[in-house]
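Reviewer comment 2.1 asked that we show a complete input and output for one of the modelled complexes. We chose the magnesium ion case, as it is the one discussed in the main text.
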Amino acid sequence: MVGSLVASALWAMLPAYVPNNAAVLAGGGRPIDGGRMWNGARVLGDGKTWRGTAVGTAVGVLLALVLNAIVDPAATALGVDLPTFPLRAAVGLALGAMAGDIGASFLKRRSGRERGAAFPGLDQLDFVVGALAFAWLLAPAWFDEWFTLPAIAVVIVVTPILHVVTNVIGFALGVKNEPW
Ligand code: CTP
Ligand code: MG
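Response of the prediction step:
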């Protein structure tokens, strides 16, 4: 019961988990804010680029398509019901994850934090809020079916743990500049 809730909630979030990591690998090029300042600080900063955002979103959507191709054997193997992703849900989760992270950068710059500075709490949950909000907007019926309140609770508890673990690994591998 609890196991199947955790499995389906995390499966439903996978297309939101990969975009920010893919962006780290793909980042570079023109910043989204074009270098513009606002009240003495960058609007977003050089850490939010068009290329990182586009590649991150595309990788998240592609992962959703791959998951759709293997969902039946995976559900059988795990003995649980797992979601398939309509394209609108896949785009919502992936683009929303990037948008949440971009929104967090905006808040970091407004609060005087330089690019790369940590903002505990926000760093771990920004992309979750963005992904859930965009998925709800783009695919509301699918969202209601899979993101019940208990499922959302699982996501909010488990995601920060997974996020810290993947970022520490990325830092140790030298692909990420900071471990957050
Ligand atoms: N990245 C990108 N585009 C995005 C998100 C991330 O190009 N939309 C790339 C950038 O190269 C960025 C790296 O991934 O430096 C790490 O992402 P993140 O930690 O989110 O950015 P920071 O550099 O820490 O910048 P900020 O303080 O604004 O979050
Ligand atoms: Mg960072």
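The radius of gyration is 16 Å. We note this here for comparison with the apo prediction described in Section 3.2.
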